[in-house]
Predict the structure.
Amino acid sequence: MTDDAPVTTAASPVTSSGPAAGATREGRPAAGPSAGGRRAKRSQRRKYLEIAFFVTPALAMLLLFVVWPVITAVQMSVFRWNGRGPLVDFVGLANYVSILGNDVFVGSLVNNLIIVVTSIAIQLPLGLAIALLLNRKMWGQGALRTIIFVPYVLAEVVAGVIWFQLVQPQYGVIDTILLAVGIEPPAQGWLGDMDLALWTVVAILTWKYLGLAVILFLAGLQGVPEELYEAAQLDGASWWQVQRRITIPLLGPTIRTWGFLSMIGSLQLFDMVWILTKGGPANATSTMAVFLVNEGTRSNNFGIAGAASVILFLIALVMAVLYQRLILRRDAKGVA
Amino acid sequence: MTTSTQMPAVTPPNPPARRRRGSAGKFQGGNPLVYAIAFVVVCATLGPVVYGVLGGFRSNGQLTQNPAALPDPWIFSNYAGVIANPSFWQYTFNSVVVAVVTTAIVVVFGVMAAYPLARYTFKGREALFMVFVAGLLFPATVAVIPLFILLTQNLGLGNTWWGVALPQAAFALPMTVVILRPFLKALPQELEEAAQLDGTSRIGFFWRILIPLSGPGMVTVGVLAFVGSWNAYLLPLLLLQGDMKTLPLGVADFSSEHSSDTAGVFAFTTLAMIPALVFFLAMQKRIVNGLQGAVKG
């Protein structure tokens, strides 16, 4: 156990300042060439073996199932390939040119962006309003929070299958209720109408994910110190003033991080669309994920699917980095 | 990226700060308007789910005659039909196995990877951590087509439990490590020093002290992985056929194959969702904590 002695002393300042502690530690064994140095070297090697033992399984999984497929997608994207035989028909950037001129892909991309923007534009004010209203002592608060979370924990498939029945033309309950109050529903049904289908999907997504916004905002609200409210109350601030001047600004970090989650989710949207419309009618609700699954599995255009994957990844990456730079950076600074 | 990844080091997991219920100061509730709005929210949220559950107790005739009515009379044959359907149980079994395997891999490999990243000092530690953070940027959707080719052609895992569980675990690992690292870091250094004075090696510390103490963190990441696997659709859709299908695939298939049997679809969907729903709602706090932690990472 003497092996561990030098490590103990070196390891103690670790949590306070990582890199600095590491630097002094590097210097020590080099200074003493004696027996102590050899022992330190051996324990050093042992430490690296331990690190390798702990980290390797996770890293291997990442390499095999995440990194490798992504590299393959890039490779596929510069070949014409139907999924069989070797990659030989090199076409350069032709697949990219082809999909960027493809109305279905561009339409899918636009749909994704519409969903990113509308999801945030609808769910943020609505979620905030509900969270602020519910953030008070009231009867049944715990039950209410649980109920609001129900749509979020449902599988998108399950939610989609139920909603698919609800919005059916003729025998769907939504149409029945609308007719009862004298509103004429669209003749081809909500999901069959070219102009309405995407908005119907957005509405259903709002139902599915509003609860997450409310729950995260409510959790964020619990971090607002009560003294602030008491002080504001003493100063005679009204409820609205308190919310606008204190609560919402302090909720900033929660809102911004929720926005990030929402954006990434919208870019990857597949399940709900696949269940509700398969991207139809006439690709009106198609998303990038729907497009690449169609190309990859139905048409066997793996080159095209690869190019679509790469573009989807680049868009997600650029949006994530921009979001990080422009919006999240403030929070990181605030903490540091 | 770099700025945010250092955050967890500064802010230990939040529970202590959040213990204080933020109920006061909201200028006492009890306002009827608030209750009215809460009622509307509850109806809008639960309406579709309750409609599905009740729809399973009606006949197709009842559903077409008056879509917006209660069961009259109550019919149990739809639910009985699903319970007697061996495919339903096969799908449920597949879903359970895939989710349990995914969760086990995520928790074991995740806590192993997070341990040296949290409590060892070594050159390149932050760089190694960045590899996991970068993993967050690769959504499963992006890689799904090449993944499908890799699994079916190169690894021979098409239509197997492993073929779904392994990639799902791999894509869940980055978030797991990002959530667990600050959690492991927050355990007091004195514990480690005391253990070392007693002659415990770092591996001994990992087994005997760190693992038992990080139970809550592991439950959180485990629940997130389980929910993700249970609800997953895209990868199983590409990989699994016939008897290997998971519940979401079963629900989707039943819905398209029996599209005229609305009551049957409602019954099948209800039975597929209720047990998971109850479990996930019981774990709600864990899910929310995990999502918050992940986002902060």
In short: Residues 1-33 of chain A have pLDDT under 50 and may be disordered. Chain A has two domains: 2-76, 96-335.
